[in-house]
Structures are given as C-alpha cells and as structure tokens.
C-alpha cells in the first residue's frame, strides 16, 4: 500500500498498548502472590500445555544436542564467536582512572550478579536470541544468567533453543513464557530465581510486562514486535527490498515494514514483488518522498528498530541518523545478517523507543560508580568553592565538613 509521507508517522498511533496494561497487571500480581502455581496455570491457559516442572534439568539439555544436527550446532558456535568478538571489542574500558596529581578521579564498571533473559518461542524458536543476550551478558562478566522461554505443545523447550542457551553460557533455563515469565524473574518464585536485571525481546504482553516491572527491576529496553524502515533511491533492487521487508513481518502479526523511496517507479516494483510473495498486507507500506533528506527526517521521527539504507553512498548519511536501533548500509547488508551472525546484536528498541534507548550490548549488563581520592592540597584548591556553594544552598555542615580539615 502506497501512502503519503505525512501518514508514515501516524502508524505509530496504531501501536498504542495502554489497553494491555490491566491484563498484564493482573498476571504480574498473581505471579507475585502465587508463584509457581500461577506460572503453571497461565502456561496452560495461554500456551495450551500443562507443565509439571518449570526448571529444565541438565539431563534434558544434554539430550537436546542429540536432536540437533551437527551443521546447525556448528552454525550456532560460529555465530557465538562473531557476537562475542564484536561485544568484546566494543566493551567500555572497565577501569577509567585519571591522575590530576592533587586528585585521582575514576570510574569503574561492574556486572550485575544475576540477570534474567527472555527468549521468545511462542510462534517460532529463537535460538539466535539466546546467543545475542547470553553472550553479551557473559562478555560483561555476569556471574549467573537465567532464561525463560515458552514450552512447545509437548510442554518442553525446543532442543535447538536448549542447545543455543547452553552454547551461550546460560546457567538455568525455565520453560515458561509470556508476561508471567517476566513477573517470575522480577519477583522470583519457588522455581524461578529473582534477578537483578531483565533483558530480551517479546510480544506485546512481554513488552508491557517489562515496562510495568521496571519500577522494581531494571530492564534493557522495550523490545516488542519487530519493525523495519527502508530508505531507497531509484537504483535500489526492488526484489531485495521486498524480501527484507517480508522477513521482518515473519516475526509477529503486529510487526511493521515501511519503505521510503524517491522513485515512484521503484515503489510500484516493490509493491508488486511483495504482493506476489505474500499478497496485500496492512502492516507493509510504501511512501514516495521528495529526496533522501526528507526520508532521513521521517526516519528520525519514526525511530525504527531496523533502518536499511539502499542508497548509492549510504555511509554519507550516517551522521544524519539520530534515532534507530541498528542501521544496515547497502544492498548486501540484509537485516538477517544482524539477526544471526555478523556479530552486532538483534535485541533492539521498538515502537519508537530508539529515541531514548540503545540496542542491547555487553554494557547493558554493567552498572558503574565513580570514585575520587584527593590530597590535602587537592582539597585546599577547591575548598573555598565548596564552602561558598554549600552555604549558598543553606547546608552549613557541608561547609563545616571541609573547613574542619584545615583548622
């Protein structure tokens, strides 16, 4: 469907999720009050299966390797290596220390003790998400990593997901999904450990649950139904664009794909390609813009999870991009590369939250504190400033705590 440029931003209004708050609040409260019992009941209600055990035993993880072919295991290992390499190289320096002579100032980053990861699994198996979240947490130095993921129709976690969790270094796996899983990790149950931080993508219920529990437990970001925005000039490959758009629509019925192009001819070709492949889709739109600058302006307002630039010189627009989860430059940089194996992370802010949040990284699992050590001369140099400002604020003992050291 081809729409006007000023209608693109209005698509955001269709993703309002206030109406889910009351439903999710009730789920969270029941999990807080009834623990495992509530998890078992909600799993039967929402997933259609009755589970006896919530925690996956080590023996089941070992057996999972026998059910996954060697080539897929090798691919998971290779992807893990690429993700680990990127997140290690880009990790912030752990101990920043500056010696000014009279004062030593510093900043230290420390990992959370225990983090909880959400691995989607309702509509499809997402072993790649286990790698993305688990490896980043391991690189950060998190001591204990637990994960929740929905059971299949037999009440078991898919073998591929179990293998990926193991390869990623996840310590404990729980076969529970949805908003109830987020509540379980936030507040703890008889089987699920309470965590210090929650990370991972999910459907609208999972995302709303993360937003609601963050008053008690920090989260990575709101990461809900997938989305892609593609900016293309007249020379772009219509077939590639159509496939990249459709790929993101595979994730969830609420996923969206938007193409902005300077060419009406290309727009029609893309629309034809998509129609041939999957028919008409309301959550796929194209808009013809006057120039690339207008497209970039729309993209910054829309703040997409994935932003693909099908342009002759995509790099020259990087400095103009302010709000995006991850940017893909050129026709041989499909989003699927970032989803699986290039090494960057695919857990990204959606629903416009790229205006305020960054994508998941090793830093997601770190917190920091600053420190300072002053000599007597160092304190003397700023003594009068401290005293004057403390008195100006009406805090005399702040001033006295400094004055006393020089009597």
CATH top level label of the largest domain:
Alpha Beta
CATH topology of the largest domain: Rossmann fold
| Oligomer state of the chains in this structure | single chain
Structural class: alpha/beta
The total domain count is: 3
How many helices does DSSP assign?
A: 15
Rounded to the nearest angstrom, the radius of gyration is: 25 Å
The shape is: globular
CATH architecture of the largest domain: 3-Layer(aba) Sandwich
Strand arrangement, major sheet: 1-10-9-8-11-12
Helix % is: 40-55%
CATH superfamily of the largest domain: Nitrogenase molybdenum iron protein domain
Care to describe what's here?
It is built from 15 helices and 13 strands. The chain starts with a strand and ends with a helix. A 6-stranded parallel beta sheet has the order 1-10-9-8-11-12, sandwiched between helices. By secondary structure, it is of the alpha/beta class. The model has no long low-confidence stretch (mean pLDDT about 95). It is about 40% helix and about 15% strand. The protein has 3 domains: about 20-215, Nitrogenase molybdenum iron protein domain (Rossmann fold, 3-Layer(aba) Sandwich); about 225-360, Rossmann fold (3-Layer(aba) Sandwich); about 375-405, no CATH class. The longest helix is centred in the N-terminal third of the chain and has 20 residues, at about 70-90.
């Amino acid at each position: 469907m081809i729409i006007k440029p000023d209608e693109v931003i209005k698509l955001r209004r269709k993703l309002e999720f206030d109406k889910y708050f009351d439903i999710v609040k009730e789920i969270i409260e029941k999990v807080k009050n009834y623990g495992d019992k509530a998890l078992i009941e909600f799993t039967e209600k929402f997933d259609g299966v009755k589970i006896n055990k919530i925690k996956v035993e080590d023996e089941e993880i070992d057996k999972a390797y026998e059910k996954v072919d060697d080539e897929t295991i090798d691919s998971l290992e290779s992807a893990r290596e690429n993700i680990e390499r990127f997140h290690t190289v880009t990790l912030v320096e752990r101990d920043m220390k500056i010696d000014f002579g009279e004062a030593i100032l510093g900043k230290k980053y420390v990992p959370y003790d225990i983090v909880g990861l959400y691995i989607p699994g309702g509509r499809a198996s997402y072993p790649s998400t286990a790698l993305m979240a688990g490896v980043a947490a391991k690189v950060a130095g998190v001591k204990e990593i637990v994960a929740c993921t929905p059971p299949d129709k037999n009440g078991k976690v898919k073998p591929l997901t179990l293998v990926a969790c193991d390869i990623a270094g996840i310590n404990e796996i729980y076969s529970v999904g949805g908003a109830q899983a987020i509540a379980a990790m936030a507040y703890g149950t008889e089987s699920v450990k309470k965590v210090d931080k929650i990370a991972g993508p999910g459907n609208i219920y999972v995302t709303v649950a993360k937003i609601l529990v963050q008053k008690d437990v920090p989260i990575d970001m709101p990461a809900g139904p997938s989305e892609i925005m593609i900016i293309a000039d007249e020379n772009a490959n219509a077939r590639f664009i159509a496939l990249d758009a459709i790929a993101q629509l595979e994730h969830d019925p609420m996923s969206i794909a938007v193409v902005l192009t300077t060419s009406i001819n290309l727009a029609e070709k893309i629309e034809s390609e998509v129609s041939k492949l999957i028919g008409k889709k309301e959550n796929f739109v194209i808009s013809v813009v006057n120039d690339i600058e207008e497209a970039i302006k729309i993209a910054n307002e829309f703040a997409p999870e994935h932003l693909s630039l099908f342009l002759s010189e995509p790099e020259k627009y990087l400095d103009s991009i302010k709000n995006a989860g991850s940017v893909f430059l050129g026709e041989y940089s499909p989003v699927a590369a970032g989803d699986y194996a290039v090494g960057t992370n695919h857990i990204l802010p959606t629903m416009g939250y790229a205006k305020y949040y960054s994508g998941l990284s090793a830093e997601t699992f770190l917190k920091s504190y600053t420190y300072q050590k002053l000599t007597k001369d160092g304190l003397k140099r700023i003594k009068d400033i401290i005293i004057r400002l403390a008195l100006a604020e009406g805090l005399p003992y702040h001033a006295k705590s400094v004055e006393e050291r020089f009597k």
